[in-house]
Predict the 3D structure of the following.
Amino acid sequence: MLILFTILGVILYLSSCGIDKAHYQLEYKELVNKYSAEYNVSDELIYAVIKTESNFNPNAESAVGAIGLMQIMPYTFEWLQTYYDGEVTLDTDCLYDPETSIKYGTRFLAFLLDRYQSCEETAVAAYNAGYGAVDEWLADESCSSDGVTLDYIPFDETRYYVQKVETAKENYKDVYKL
């Protein structure tokens, strides 16, 4: 009987790992590893943003116009090109390309992590709401007691977004030991 319970336990454990891995896929692993290393952003954060933003659909488009795996707005894409490369050389349609989306999405996360002193939740909030909004929240004592971290996010969508990204990030760490 003990052997039967042991076998059943192993089967349940393997099934749960398979379900987790099926739900938290590691698509585009080479690209994520490449840009994670280049921009010093953790793999699990990149995967969590991709999972939350597009669920790994490179053709995803949001109702507000964000495009690709990492759901970058066209004006943000143009700004990133100008800020880092000095000029806009890529058309907005390039955001449908997984490499372009991961490169510029990770580049933007790196910019935000630097801007917010590596405070990941604040950077993720800015990825969703824009850094102008987050800067305003940080200056508001009802949202931030120290001007660096957000104690309260006044927009429901951004608050839930940060929670979803954080949950996905922790799940990636747990499932893949990232």
Remarks:
- Residues 1-15 have pLDDT under 50 and may be disordered.
- DSSP finds eight helices and no strands in the chain.
- The domain at 28-176 is CATH 1.10.530.10 (Lysozyme).
- Residues 97 and 136 are 33 Å apart (CA to CA).
